[in-house]
Specification:
32% helix, elongated, 20% strand, 291 residues, seven-stranded mixed sheet, alpha+beta, single chain
Length: 291
C-alpha cells in the first residue's frame, strides 16, 4: 500500500495527516464527551457553602417561674425607690445647708443701729440688737447645756438643740404631752442660763409620711402648729421673752437623715431650738415663717 504523508507545521505544534489511506494511524480518535457526574465508586464532589450570619442569642424566660420573676421585679423596684429616696434626702440636705449658711452669714453682720430690725435669714422677729457673742463662746456654751433627750450641735454660727417631736406631742397633733411640757421647761431654763438674752428660733420639722390626722391639711401646717405651741409655752410658762423668739415651719423640707427607714422618720420629726449669737433687748411679737 502506497501512501503519501504530509506534515504541516503550525506554530510550535506538529500535525500529521494521512492522505489516501483509510487506516491512517495518525487519524485522531473521536472526541469523548466530558461528564461532570461522578462515577460509581468515585469520591463525591465537595460543595462549599457560606456559613449563615451569627444570630444573637437572648435569654429565654419560657421555663422561669412567674412568681420568681415578680419577686425579682418587686425587689428591683424597691431598691430603685430606696436609691431615689436617698438621693432626694441628699439634695434636701444640700439645700438645707445652703439655707443655713445664708442664715449664718446674715446673722453675722454688724449689729443694727438703735431702732433697726433683726431678721434671721432676711426675715424674723423685729427687735433692736444690743450685742453678740463669738463662735468660740457659742461652742463653749454647748458643753454646759443639760437638756435630757436633746442633742445640741454647732451649725456654722448658731447652736441647734434637737428635741424629738414624739417626746413633746401627741402623735399627729400639736398637743403637748405632760412630759413634753416638762422637757420644754428644762430647755428654756438651760438656754436662759447658758445663753441669756440670745435670739432663739423655734423650728418645726416633720417627716414625709402622709398625715393620719385630718385636722392638718399638710405637713407644713402641722409643723407651724407645733412650733407655735412651743412659742406659746415659752412665752406663757417660762422666762423667755417674745422679743427673743421667732417661729419657722419647715415641714419635711429639711430632714437630718433619710426618710427611707422608720428610725430616720422618727428623728426627722423634731423641734429645733436655734440659738443665735445676737442678743435681744426688747420685747415684740414673734413672726411665723413657712419654708
Amino acid at each position: 500500500m502506497t501512501a503519501r504523508l504530509s506534515i504541516v507545521v503550525v506554530g510550535a505544534g506538529l500535525v500529521a495527516t494521512a492522505l489516501g489511506c483509510q487506516q491512517n494511524p495518525f487519524r485522531p480518535a473521536p472526541a469523548t464527551p466530558v461528564s461532570f457526574t461522578p462515577q460509581a465508586g468515585s469520591p463525591a464532589t465537595t460543595t462549599l457553602a457560606l456559613a449563615p450570619a451569627a444570630v444573637p442569642q437572648f435569654p429565654s424566660f419560657a421555663n422561669t417561674d412567674p412568681k420568681q420573676l415578680e419577686t425579682q421585679l418587686a425587689r428591683s423596684r424597691q431598691e430603685t425607690q430606696l436609691a431615689q429616696d436617698e438621693l432626694a434626702a441628699v439634695r434636701e440636705q444640700l439645700a438645707a445647708t445652703s439655707t443655713q449658711l445664708a442664715q449664718a452669714r446674715s446673722v453675722a453682720r454688724p449689729a443694727a443701729p438703735p431702732g433697726g430690725d433683726f431678721a434671721a435669714g432676711g426675715q424674723g422677729a423685729a427687735s433692736p440688737t444690743t450685742a453678740s457673742i463669738g463662735p468660740a463662746a457659742m461652742q463653749e456654751g454647748m458643753a454646759h447645756l443639760a437638756i435630757p433627750g436633746a442633742a445640741p450641735r454647732l451649725d456654722g454660727g448658731v447652736v441647734r438643740i434637737e428635741i424629738p417631736a414624739d417626746k413633746l406631742f401627741e402623735p399627729g397633733t400639736a398637743a403637748l404631752l405632760p412630759a413634753g411640757a416638762s422637757l420644754l421647761s428644762q430647755a428654756a431654763t438651760e438656754v436662759q442660763r447658758v445663753y441669756p438674752g440670745q435670739f432663739l428660733g423655734i423650728e418645726g420639722h416633720t417627716d414625709t409620711e402622709p398625715l393620719q390626722n385630718a385636722t392638718w391639711g399638710s405637713a407644713h401646717q402641722l409643723s407651724v402648729a407645733r412650733a407655735s405651741a412651743v412659742f406659746e409655752f415659752f412665752t406663757s410658762r417660762t422666762t423667755l421673752k417674745q422679743g427673743q423668739l421667732f417661729v419657722v415651719a419647715h415641714g419635711p423640707n429639711h430632714p437630718v437623715v433619710s426618710n427611707a427607714t422608720a428610725a430616720g422618720r422618727t428623728r426627722n420629726r423634731r423641734i429645733e431650738l436655734v440659738v443665735y449669737p445676737e442678743q435681744s433687748a426688747a420685747d415684740s411679737g414673734a413672726t411665723a415663717l413657712v419654708d
